[in-house]
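Example for tutorial group B:
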C-alpha cells in the first residue's frame, strides 16, 4: 500500500480573494476530480486546510512513481 500526502500550492489566495465558501467549493471540486481518477479500492481524505492523503491499496512504491515528481 502506498500513502501519498500532498497539498494545494498557494491556496490561501483563493480564500483571501473569494472567501471561505468559494474555498470550500474549490476543495470539493478538487476531491471530486481526484476521486474519479482513483480506483474504487483507493481512499482519499482531506486532513487539513488544503492537504490531502491518498491510500493506494495493493500498490507498491515502484508502481506509484509515475504519479508524483521527485
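The residue assignment follows.
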Amino acid at each position: 500500500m502506498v500513502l501519498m500526502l500532498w497539498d494545494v500550492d498557494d491556496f490561501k489566495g483563493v480564500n483571501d480573494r473569494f472567501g471561505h465558501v468559494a474555498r470550500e467549493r474549490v476543495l470539493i471540486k478538487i476531491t471530486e476530480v481526484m476521486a474519479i481518477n482513483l480506483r474504487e479500492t483507493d481512499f482519499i481524505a482531506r486532513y487539513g486546510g488544503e492537504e490531502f492523503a491518498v491510500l493506494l491499496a495493493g500498490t507498491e512504491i515502484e508502481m506509484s512513481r509515475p504519479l508524483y515528481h521527485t
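The two ends are 19 Å apart (CA to CA). Compare this with the pattern of hydrophobic and polar residues in the output above.
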